[in-house]
Amino acid sequence: MKYDFDVTIIGAGSAGMTAAEVAAEMGVRVALVERDRIGGDCLWTGCIPSKALLASAKAAHTVRHAESYGLKASGLGVDTAAVWDRLKSIQNDIAATDDSPDRYRLMGAEVIGGEARFAGDHQIRVGDRKIRTRFALICTGSRPAALPIEGLADAGYLTSENVFELDRAPESLITLGGGPIGVEMAQAMTRLGVTTAVLEREARILGREEPDLAGILAARLLAEGVDLRTGVDVARVERTAAGTTVTGTTAAGPESWVAEAVFVAAGRLPNIESLEIEAAGVKASPKGIIVNDRLGTTAGWVYAAGDCAGRYLFTHSAAAEAAIALRNMFFPGSAPAPTPVPWATFTDPELAHVGMTVAEARKALGRKNTRVHRWELAHSDRARADGATEGAIVVVTDDKFRIVGAHILAPAAGEMIGQFTLAIKNKLKLTPDFGNLVQVYPTYATIISQTGAAATYGQLRKPFLRTLRRLTGLIRR
Q1: Among 74, 290, 386, 418, which is least packed by CB within 10 angstroms?
Q2: Is-above-0.85 flag for pTM?
Q3: Taking the CB of residue 207, how many other CB atoms lie within 10 A of it?
Q4: Chain region(s) in the chain for CATH 3.50.50.60
């Protein structure tokens, strides 16, 4: 078969854009197919608008608490319409530059608008056009999951896909779900003056995080005014004269909440239904397209990367997977799918995570073979200077001090967690590798070396080392 392209990339979000760049650098013929807008979830409904919103909210919070910095501030006015205008301006600037279709055309990619579907072996249809391609890379991302709650669809609700299309923030908000998206939105809205409640079905928020650190963050949210409820079984949502009413059951019994709008943050689903992947012999599970450790699918010529493959639902992992998938297409077996993968919840303070939690390590390694090292942020001089001492670092190691997990609750935790990602990947030890590592002072990263140093000093107190020191002293004399 004569191919029109060496690789056809379906979806121009974080994974697809990275793949197009890598393919162009390889010098292969590449098509980039997108049914909507270049940039995908990250630019239009995810990372960029949400972090712009968080930045505005943090500025408002800082001004409101200026006295804690020895300053006087008064008359803070929050115009959420102006906040929404700001985040849209940032989106449009990125869309016109780094995420512009013309940028990818200049690289050598053919940008094709329309919805793609597989049409047989090495064949893809986009509208009336049939494309014959040597390889295909599916990068179609994911979308917010709906909740099977009585009346929710009829009452209407917000998700990350439409909340940033509003002209302003609602006056009040009920968030269904206490995961990363839900708690980020709740803190941002509260800081902007929006009365906000979070209803979480489980016993705590951020269920994938180290429980102790998630608990500290939950206390921070409560202190800032978020009506944070856990163990809530939501039964019904309806429009009433007072607004949108949510009814449910808590440990105390039936309860109801009323707000202008409801925001659903209850997980995500892969965008694969319209692809007709069966025509290419590609198989999927409820989590997404099934891939092997090289990101290949059950069809040898088709690969998948990012949210649609269901490994990790993060922009950074999607981009890394896309680059690795391209390498494996043209240089077979050259790289496995990325692991470990860090992530962060961008609240204030941030909560970052890589590797195992304490509970996971104890289950995998055994309680006796698991060591837990903790250092409070209150011991950080930078945290004291910034007035941001709520938080801690928890490092999980095996009995030989090899790092298997790390969790940081601190400002800029997302910037620090990469050190531990590298450590786990390269099987480094907390002591001596981090105990002897010099960090810039005064930065939050000094808590990493402080944690390593504490583990090192603990080793020096061991009886056999004390005996060795005494013997060494005798020999020198």
Answers
A1: 74
A2: yes
A3: 13
A4: 5-143+269-330, 152-267
